[in-house]
Design a protein that fits this description.
Layout: H1 19-28, H2 32-45, E1 49-51, H3 90-98, H4 125-135, H5 140-151, H6 163-170, H7 174-184, H8 197-207, H9 214-221, H10 223-227, H11 231-238, H12 242-253, E2 275-280, E3 283-288, E4 296-298, H13 300-307, H14 314-351, H15 353-358, H16 368-375, H17 379-386, E5 390-393, E6 396-399, E7 407-409, E8 415-417, H18 418-430, H19 440-449, H20 456-465, H21 471-474
Parallel strand pairs: 2-5
Antiparallel strand pairs: 1-4, 2-3, 5-6, 7-8
Length: 477
């Protein structure tokens, strides 16, 4: 069989994402903080992009004399006229030069940092424990062992490393490590250095002076029943009455299961809304949040460089063209992003107007397809727009994804949003008797009375999403 080369003309159609489209999609799915960081990075890397500075008030700005300087021959001789001001504080002046040391008098107008702006750093658990260890005046070996033990405590104050490993790391005997650990377990917060929950609670009980009592007996042998609130089993096992068990349980409930929690360095994450929805009279007004967002424009110097007609090298021209194109695409993509978010919020407002007026109970079932058809966009675009975007509403701050939820059919027709059902479950649990909490099956029956037909397992799923414990653990005796 002979092999030969042939030319063949073939027409195909292929979808290619241009760099401009890629940038627009990338910016669309970024959160507000991520967008600001991207813009700041682009301002540093792209010389063709610049930030529009705020204009200075003409009345407050100093006057600049643009006239040509006078002829040196006709200029007057400059003379120094020394004049003593009448408002000099002579007591400070004389006091400064009559004292042997150096004294500085600062003007009130001098710019200096405000002392109330300083925030003391929060002390960590390790620092707090190391300070207490050094206060005991330990030997060099004890300080080394204590530092290793404290360094291996987790954020809750528990020790997860075996004594043998600590002895190997500190090159000391296990008995010596145990002795230093016993010392650390007496430090504040009480319970720190424990290896499990039982030891943590026992350390706190010993500190309170209730060692070798009913409290420690329950902690040692009946933590499982205590967790399940099976107080009758504790009564049968210890052969005591219910009142004594309840009194001991109330004391145990006041103990701290995570002693290191107060030294947690978790900083709260503050949400800055991307869009605001206000109600004026009977109308809702949508406003985009542009606070802190740099106002961008293309650098005029680089534009003029290409239009002046001067000869520049090919590489320099390609570089300028590329940066100008990138700057223009970024500005256009940001405007398109803001416009798309505004249109999506308008559509959500049309579908969920009752929610904005009355609250969560009036949230309607809605999916991405509804908004996509309303504003004639693809569902994937709506998904990107609503990810990590937040809206300030008269009912609170919500993520845009919150308004999209599945529907649950009512018994007599109509549908209700799953978020509204969760709110209904939360209200039922909030109004229950703490001594006789509702089971998931009972909550399901109560929902049917409101014409909401969901199974017990669905109630359990929604209850877990609300971070609510089951009925046997919500019961208060």
């Amino acid at each position: 069989m002979a092999l030969e080369l042939r030319q063949q003309l073939k027409l195909t159609q292929q979808l290619i994402m241009t760099p401009q489209l890629q940038m627009a999609i990338k910016l669309l799915q970024l959160s507000r903080l991520e967008l600001m960081e991207t813009v700041r990075q682009e301002l540093e890397e792209n010389p063709a992009l610049e930030e529009v500075q705020e204009t200075i008030n003409a009345e407050a700005a100093p006057e600049i004399n643009d006239q040509a300087p006078e002829d040196p021959a006709s200029a007057k001789e400059v003379t120094i006229e020394e004049k003593i001001s009448d408002d000099i504080d002579w007591s400070n002046y004389l006091g400064e030069y009559n004292t042997p040391g150096k004294i500085n008098f600062e003007s009130e107008n001098k710019e200096s940092p405000k002392f109330e702006a300083f925030i003391a750093p929060k002390e960590s658990l390790n620092e707090h424990l190391l300070w207490q260890l050094l206060m005991t005046r330990p030997t060099e070996e004890e300080e080394r062992i204590g530092s290793i033990i404290i360094g291996n405590l987790n954020s809750n104050g528990y020790l997860d490393v075996p004594i043998e490993d600590l002895a190997r790391m500190s090159e000391s005997l296990p008995e010596k490590v145990e002795a230093v650990l016993d010392l650390i377990q007496t430090f504040d917060p009480i319970g720190v250095g424990a290896r499990d929950l039982k030891e943590c609670l026992l350390l706190q009980a010993k500190h309170l002076g209730v060692d070798n009592t009913l409290i420690t007996e329950i902690i040692n042998s009946h933590l499982g029943n205590l967790e399940k609130k099976n107080y009758k089993a504790i009564c049968r096992a210890l052969k005591i009455n219910m009142d004594d068990v309840i009194s001991a349980v109330n004391i145990i409930r006041g103990l701290e299961p995570r002693p290191g929690r107060q030294f947690s360095d978790d900083t709260p994450q503050y949400i800055i809304p991307d869009i605001y929805v206000f109600k004026f009279d009977d109308e809702f007004v949508i406003t985009l949040n542009d606070d802190g967002m740099p106002k961008l424009r293309v650098n005029s110097f680089y534009k003029k460089t290409l239009t002046r007609g001067k000869k520049i090298s090919g590489e320099a021209e390609d570089y300028i063209q590329d940066k100008l194109r990138s700057a223009a695409w970024l500005i256009k993509s940001i405007h398109q992003r803001q416009k798309t978010i505004y249109r999506v919020m308008e559509s959500i407002l049309r579908f969920q107007r009752e929610f904005f007026e009355k609250g969560i109970a009036y949230l309607r079932p809605m999916v991405l397809r509804d908004v996509a058809h309303d504003i004639e966009m693809h569902e994937s675009t709506i998904s990107r727009v609503t990810t990590n975007k937040y809206a300030y509403t008269p009912q609170g701050i919500y993520e845009l994804k919150y308004f999209f939820n599945s529907s649950i059919q009512r018994l007599h027709g109509g549908a209700i949003a799953s978020a509204s059902v969760q709110e209904k479950i939360r209200q039922i649990i909030a109004g229950e008797d703490p001594k006789k909490p509702y089971s998931d099956d009972k909550i399901s029956k109560l929902l049917k009375e409101s014409h909401i037909n969901i199974a017990r397992r669905t109630v359990a799923k929604y209850r877990e999403m609300l971070n609510v414990l089951p009925s046997n653990k919500r019961k208060l005796v």
